[in-house]
Write a structure and sequence with these properties.
The N and C termini lie far apart (about 85 Å). The chain has a two-stranded antiparallel ribbon. The relative contact order is 0.15. About 65% of the residues lie in helices and about 5% in strands. It is mainly alpha-helical.
Length: about 525
């Protein structure tokens, strides 16, 4: 006779690795594209012809990848999709510099000296604020600030995952703001201007039209973000626990007190010497970097695009060497500083020491590379299906059917754009579709195109951090798992969203309050630019 308890089966909750989840999501998208294509899922929406300044209809339909031709695309473009994946190149370039600095011990010394006595709330504010304003220069904050923040928090003997969350939250949920104009202005203003000229043929929008509201928003978001991270997220993540390794030694060497003291003094001297030399070289490098973006001086302007007429476009234009080379320059700064510290502190004695020391830091990026590969296929395949574009086009048509205007219309537009942003993450791609709808409608209600444009930036910031389709979300998931002490229980895609979800909710409410408050009070959003016309 079998006992009844022998037949009891305990079902364990299965935690899928992020790599597995991305593969499953990719398969779902492929099958879904076949189903939607079978039912002719498509839409027609309006865009603005910038030459004639008139609306032009564009049709978009779901492309079937669950077919012979679709499978040919998937197989034939796997390598191209991986190489073209936005985070890949910047991440690899940054990882080299970070690895050398970590291996040399420079980061340990630097962050202990800088943050040992710094209040934890101030550190979190600094990390979030830097992440918020990092959108000034592409998405460089995701690949540089996230690992740096982890080192900072580890130096403070805090859970590095808190630093990862703070840095990612600042970069993702503050992407639409900064303390100065950057690449987003060059991307959005052309579409805002052409949409505004459907109503007023002479309408002009300057690059600094959102400057005031950007600066204030950056500060407000960083303060609110600090409260969210410290009061909600940090408590849920808990303390960082390191596995203690016990080394059993066969032979024990007895060292006298004089030898121990001498060894400690020598190590302290080498550390101070290495730190001093590294900081001198780093300062010189930074001065050179700054000099390379100043025009008109002897030998200056190395990173400027002189094919552009204005300075802002020379430094933030589409072909700017500053934009394209920033991640490389920062990585080079880390490489030089790490090497100088390593050799000056006698941690490195030869190039072999450098290579051997970097093996462990670089080995950790292997898991992220695998994650980047599967995520790149998922993002590229979803984009190829046009599902996101069709959904955005349908939502834009829904928005254009509303007969009311004013601030209530703006709120509805924000909600609709938030939904579309989950499926179509590129801010430029969305604004091409929504600008011809939102800008003219708000202008007829006396709301300025500049305020409409900033609202779009706010919307893009609200949902970036919770969408697996957002290219840099994979960096967030990867670093959470690097510092996850429970290797048997990985941080899943759903787990990462769960961690960041309180931030999403509260910061979205904060964004709405900023927009509504600014509109009601009527403060200028830029030089001589107001929420209303």
């Amino acid at each position: 006779m079998f006992k009844k308890n022998d037949w009891n089966i305990k079902l364990k909750k299965r935690s899928f690795q992020p790599v597995t989840t991305y593969i499953v999501l990719t398969l779902i998208v492929i099958i879904l594209s076949g189903i939607l294509s079978l039912f002719h899922f498509q839409t027609t929406y309006n865009v603005v012809d910038s030459t004639k300044v008139e609306l032009v209809q564009v049709s978009s339909e779901v492309e079937n990848l669950f077919s012979f031709d679709g499978l040919k695309y998937i197989v034939g473009n796997a390598s191209k999709n991986f190489i073209a994946f936005a985070p890949l190149a910047m991440y690899l370039v940054a990882a080299i510099g970070l690895a050398i600095c970590e291996a040399s011990g420079f980061f340990d010394v630097l962050f202990k000296r800088m943050f040992a006595n710094l209040n934890k709330n101030i550190l979190t504010f600094i990390v979030i604020f830097l992440g918020t304003i990092s959108s000034l220069i592409n998405e460089v904050g995701f690949v540089i600030l996230i690992p740096l923040a982890a080192f900072m928090y580890k130096a403070k003997k805090r859970n590095p995952m808190i630093g990862v969350v703070a840095a990612f939250a600042g970069c993702a949920f503050g992407y639409g703001t900064s303390i100065f104009v950057g690449i987003l202005e060059t991307q959005l203003i052309p579409y805002t201007t052409t949409a505004a000229r459907l109503i007023d043929r002479t309408y002009h929008i300057s690059l600094v039209s959102n400057l005031y509201i950007m600066i204030i928003s950056s500060i407000i978001l960083s303060i609110v973000g600090t409260i969210i991270v410290e009061k909600i997220i940090a408590t849920s993540l808990g303390k960082y626990r390191v596995k203690k390794e016990l080394n059993e030694l066969d032979d024990l060497e007895i060292i006298g007190d004089d030898e121990i003291e001498q060894s400690m003094l020598s190590a302290d001297y080498n550390e101070k010497r290495g730190y001093k030399h590294a900081m001198i070289v780093a300062t010189i490098f930074v001065i050179f970097f700054i000099y390379s973006v100043i025009p008109g001086l002897p030998g200056s302007g190395l990173l400027l695009d002189y094919s552009e007429e204005t300075y802002l476009r020379q430094i933030f234009g589409d072909n700017s060497y500053f934009q394209d080379g920033f991640a490389y320059m920062i990585s080079l700064l880390f490489v030089v500083s790490g090497l100088v510290y390593g050799f000056a502190s006698k941690k490195f004695k030869s190039d072999t020491d450098v290579i051997n020391a970097c093996k462990e830091p670089l080995a950790r990026i292997g898991s992220i590379l695998l994650l980047l590969f599967v995520a790149s296929q998922f993002v590229a395949i979803f984009k190829r299906t046009n599902i996101g574009t069709v959904i955005a086009g349908i939502l834009a048509n829904v928005l254009s059917s509303f007969s009311f205007g004013g601030i209530f219309y703006l709120i509805i537009a924000i909600i609709i754009m938030m939904i579309s942003d989950y499926f179509l993450t590129g801010i430029q791609a969305k604004w091409i579709i929504f600008a011809p709808v939102i800008v003219p409608a708000l202008m007829q209600s006396s709301i300025s195109p500049q305020f409409a444009q900033f609202s779009m930036r706010a919307v893009d910031s609200m949902t970036n951090g919770i969408s697996p389709l957002y290219a840099y979300f994979v960096i967030f998931v990867g670093y959470l798992n690097i510092y996850n002490h429970r290797q048997d229980k990985p941080v899943t895609i759903g787990g990462a969203i769960k961690i960041i979800f309180p931030y999403f909710v509260i910061i979205s409410i904060t964004w709405l309050l900023i927009l509504l408050g600014w509109y009601i009070i009527g403060l200028p959003i830029g030089p001589e630019v107001y929420p209303t016309i």
